# Entry
Amino acid sequence: MHLRGLLGYTATYAVLAVAAVLTLGPFLFSVMTAFTSTRQFAQEGPLSIPAPPVLESFMALFAPSAGADGFVTPVVVTVQMVAVVLVGQMVFSVLAAYAFAQLRFPGRDLLFWVYVATLMVPQVVVVVPLYLMMSEAGLRNTFWALVLPFVLGSPYAIFLLRENFRGVPSELMDAMRIDGAGTLRLLWHLVVPLNRPIIVTLVLITVVTHWNNFMWPMVITSGPEWRTITVATSALQSQYDNNWTLVMAGTTLAMLPLVILMIVFQKQITRSVGDATLR
# Structure
């Protein structure tokens, strides 16, 4: 191998190694601190390796002293919120994307691009109008205030699904129509199965986005009744006077389901990203 090539490989791997450390370092630090005892953390500092690893911080999260019933309510509320938003977004996004891709009606393209243009609007801009709408409807600090703004589809999901639905071979569509298939049968028995990888990826993106959603639950809820896991983790910092082992246990618990999802669905994600790149 030439010297120039060797230097290029070395520089490339050095940059990748630095990027990996900067990306994974905070997560590793969070997990290490979560399994460190409070005494060891106070004596040896934040970069000490747990010796031995302990679960006292995780147990403290679910103890009655951590709130009305510890972290149980935030976990349950977050799971319910993500489940409702996920089902709603996938159903409405698939239906809307199919309409924009395969059905013909006046103003179809104009309506699609106007809807997609809302992606350019920062979420923080719509927080105040949404808050006022929910307050006027009497939904502030309720479960429905958490899910209603997001349950009726996502511009990003509709855009991505529409581009994939347009790639379904028209010969297959025509063959099923000749066999008497209607719109819903075409959608659920042909279009959806052919686009399963991108749908799985959107499921994962939706789960991650709303599991990690912090700003809207923080704004629209007050008190522990409808507090999500992100808001509860943030509250730990002030509630326990910077007890970092407890805060990092909450952070680790919050990201654990997402890591499991990434491991389970990594093949589908890789395949769908590759397909999207080729398109």
About this structure: DSSP finds 15 helices and no strands in the chain. The chain has a mean pLDDT of 84. The CA atoms of residues 119 and 156 lie 7 Å apart.
